[in-house]
């Protein structure tokens, strides 16, 4: 039998780096030993009839294929897609801060309708800064928010100062200035507590969810999970009392989405799938499916299923996302969806379909000047070439 094991070195040396080849030879060697232990008579007969080389070749080929398949890693979309409807919900017309905004603006409307009054000038400055954020003119928005903060301080408006700080925090999060965003959110929370808000108030819970999300984006998984668990517990208590409240439901869905992403990063794919499904149901109920956020969530559901080895479900979510993407021709997510579809085909051994999907993704990424898509498509095409060798 020792001579049989030695023959492994003569078998097709596998593709990839020297370390890859060494690993696959080691796998094949262990599989051969297991084979001879389980089938000693067959192994002896094979050795005597000179078929041992064929057995080893088959084992090595299987090891190579399995090793390549284990390198297939579809990409989840966390930072790549901004999830604008939810991630900046304080800034748009959805979510917790809009309530603070409405209350804040109405205070000044009662005091003065004069467009030239200091109060109305502050309101207009804030509105312009929000418009700049929505247009992604971040430097201009930052300047206007600092101006608005000085105006609110001159007016000694506690609500105005709190609201501007909140907008600054959201802008910092949008710009991925995570330390700055966290500090500003904590300052806003302290101001809310000083004004008598309770820890289960929707405004406080909005900030709590975002602080946990910042921890997720910074790779502080334990801190993120703790924050999401606490926030979800408080939200679910509120939902028992107000099950149809859209604002609470939306924040619950937003938090579930981020929580699901964090569980994926923690490789807890079964739990992640559960929470992502709940988030997707709430999001589409409120915003519909024809938007990039829905594409992102469907992609992440597909990735979770892929890691659970549920290829049928993974394909189902990807196919649904690609159908939606047909109505959104400029959605950057389309390229990553196609690249991930190529990897799914590759996992099934459908090399031509995999090549077609990944080639489309590569061209799409080049056209959109999207490095992440190009990199993932390149990775897919390289794996296809290795399978073909």
From TrEMBL:
A cellular component term, taken from the record's GO annotations: mitochondrial inner membrane
Key words of the record: Mitochondrion, Repeat, TPR repeat, Transit peptide
Superkingdom to which the source organism belongs: Eukaryota
Statement: the UniProt record of this protein carries the keyword Mitochondrion: yes
Subcellular locations according to the entry: Mitochondrion
A GO biological-process term: mitochondrial respiratory chain complex III assembly
Gene3D superfamilies xrefs: Tetratricopeptide repeat domain
Pfam families: TPR_12 (PF13424)
InterPro entries the record matches: TPR-like_helical_dom_sf, TTC19
Family: Belongs to the TTC19 family.
Protein name: Tetratricopeptide repeat protein 19 homolog, mitochondrial
Protein species of origin: Hermetia illucens
